[in-house]
Write a structure and sequence with these properties.
Layout: H1 9-34, H2 45-98, H3 106-126, E1 130-131, E2 134-135, E3 142-147, E4 156-161, H4 164-168, H5 179-232, H6 236-263, H7 267-271
Antiparallel strand pairs: 1-2, 3-4
């Protein structure tokens, strides 16, 4: 190898290797300080693209879970109202039966009917109950559609807006201030209680289905997060090993660059 003054190939090569080592050391420090294996598209372009799609899917899953949870709250609120309605109907049924007592005077029956009528008004008022501005009970038993998939396009569940008005109108003309009226009221209210029992059972079935859908969304989110973590998150143990390696290479590279820079000074002895 020729001895030259203007060009120091050894020093140039050492500087090049030291520069690469410094770049890798900086990347390793960024990964360990951020906790992410990918901090820029330069780190892993393909992995970053996949991670971005998975991150968006996780956010959509969270949103779908929130929607399903709110729908469950809607049904729970609806059932709470119907539970109260059941108590009212039971009391009205009791009042109707008490009115069949032949030992009761006309004044007694009138008092029973007064409470009966007030309770009927309360049932009518309950038809207008809302949840966040949405009617709990709709005419004709309407339905609200709840999306239960993270992509928002496939799976959905309908939740019922029970028509309480239909149940209430079955005994709207009942009058228990007379024996015959009380007899008719017992029959109609018994039918109303049976109808209410059916819609409460439907409500419970819908709550059950939505809870299963919510569980599935939580499982999907867990799996998506695990998959995204394998792409995006840094393996601290592995990266710590790399950091130690690059630190040693940096120190040795710096020493070798200094040595290469000193090697050209040997030419001075030839010029003496």
């Amino acid at each position: 190898m020729s001895l030259v003054i203007n060009t120091n190939s050894a020093a140039t090569t050492a500087a090049y290797n030291l520069g690469n080592t410094n770049v890798n050391l900086q990347r390793s420090l960024n990964r360990l300080s951020s906790g992410y294996r990918i901090n820029s598209s330069f780190d892993d372009a393909g992995g970053l693209a996949v991670s971005m799609k998975m991150s968006a899917a996780i956010r959509r899953t969270d949103a779908a879970s929130a929607n399903v949870g709110n729908s469950i709250s809607f049904l729970q609120t609806q059932d709470g109202v119907m539970k109260t309605a059941d108590k009212i109907l039971s009391r009205m049924s009791e009042l109707s039966t008490l009115s069949l007592d032949v030992t009761k005077t006309t004044n007694d029956l009138s008092l029973y009917h007064k409470e009966f009528d007030v309770l009927r008004s309360q049932l009518t008022a309950m038809e207008s109950e809302v949840f966040n501005g949405i009617s709990l009970f709709g005419a004709g038993e309407g339905a609200l559609t709840v999306l239960t998939s993270q992509d928002g396009t496939t799976q959905s569940v309908d939740i019922s807006q029970t028509d309480l008005n239909t149940i209430n109108t079955t005994f709207s003309a009942s009058n228990i201030s007379s024996y015959t009226g009380a007899q008719a009221a017992v029959t109609t209210i018994t039918a109303a209680i049976e109808s209410l029992a059916k819609v409460r059972a439907q409500n419970g079935a819908e709550q059950s289905r939505l809870n299963y859908a919510l569980d599935m969304l939580k499982v999907n989110k867990t799996n998506l997060e695990a998959a995204n973590s394998r792409i995006l998150d840094v393996d601290v143990a592995e990266e710590s090993t790399q950091l130690a390696r690059y630190n040693i290479l940096q120190q040795s590279g710096t020493a070798m660059l200094a040595q290469a820079n000193q090697s050209s000074q040997s030419l001075l002895r030839l010029l003496q």
